[in-house]
Amino acid sequence: MINRRQILAALAATPMLAAPVLAQPRWAPSRSMHLVVPFPAGGSPDVLTRLMAPHAQAAIGQSALVENRTGTAATPDHIAARLMEVANDALRQPDVQARGAQAGFLLRGTDVAAESEKWGRIIRERNITFDG
After folding, report:
1. Which of 65, 69, 28, 71 is nearest to 50 (CA)?
2. What torsion do the CA atoms of 86, 73, 35, 51 make, to the nearest 10 degrees?
3. Is 64 exposed, middle or buried (CB count within 10 Å of its CB: 0-12, 13-18, 19+)?
4. Residue 61, domain member (yes or no)
5. Nearest CA among 40, 67, 64 for reference residue 53
6. End-to-end CA distance of the chain
7. pLDDT at 113
8. Model's pTM, two decimal places?
9. 108 band by pLDDT with thresholds 50, 70 and 90
10. Which of 1, 14, 44, 100 could cross-link to 107 by cystine, CB 3.0-4.6 Å?
11. Of 77, 81, 59, whose CA–CA distance to 68 is shortest?
């Protein structure tokens, strides 16, 4: 059981734990900070990051730059395209399709660019908007 003396001793020792941290010089970045947004410009994450950037800049004393990297999970577009190409090639292999069919899956490669263009056209033609 913990008694009052042990609690008081722990409380008295607590400031000594912070002493090494307080003795360190204040950290400051030596170059600008890059805030990476893994979504296209203009979306909610981009807007919120751009609203936050001036506050971060004031806090650290360096410029805060917002970068939009729109690849899959911020993967560069050329790498994401190559990964999709390899995945589609694998899904087109007869043995992979046969194993997928045995497991109850219909496997087929999809051309993401063509699908995006097709659905983008449909959205524009029908004047569909997102009110989220």
Report:
1. 65
2. 140
3. buried
4. yes
5. 64
6. 55
7. 63
8. 0.39
9. low
10. 100
11. 77
